[in-house]
Design a protein that fits this description.
The protein is mainly alpha-helical and 186 residues long. The chain is 61% helix and 9% strand. Strand 2 and strand 3 form a beta hairpin. The longest helix has 22 residues.
Length: 186
Amino acid sequence: MGLAEIERALARLYVDVSLRNRLAGDPASVGAEFRLTVPETQRLSSIPSRQLEQFAESLLRKRASQVSRIVPMTACALGARYSKWFERYATAAPPRGSRADVGDAVGFVDALVRFGPEVEPPWAADLARYELAWFRFAQSRQWLAVQAFDYPVLRLARGEEGVARRRCIVVWWRLTPGGAIHHCVM
């Protein structure tokens, strides 16, 4: 076939641990899945598994770092657990689209919401939703955005301790496209 098929197979191998395991056990079926020739399959399967694992780990760390720049307060609040939750999300979600950092941030925040009560502190998903909403509003040309939260996110953003569940609404606005962002928490 060609270079494009090999690159597509490598891209999937780097993010899919089950595919890496299948390659080690049954390279012919993985090669067929990607429509590789026998020599291409042999070349792919000759890559040391440790080398694939190291690159996959490096890619995972890079993705986690990129997302932590979009939701830094959440990453800080989760502390050492951030890596665990990000890995759990990323194992099931390959990088997304041309802006993989933003796609990963959206996917990670959605995953935190899905993981629900397993995530400590319990308000981490709301803080992540707040940070992502702010980021997306800043990147857009919208004039107004409104979103509801289960916790008083402004108190969370300030790093206050012992914040109890209490619904709030956040409104973001700007007077001109690309202008300064204002917001109000109610």
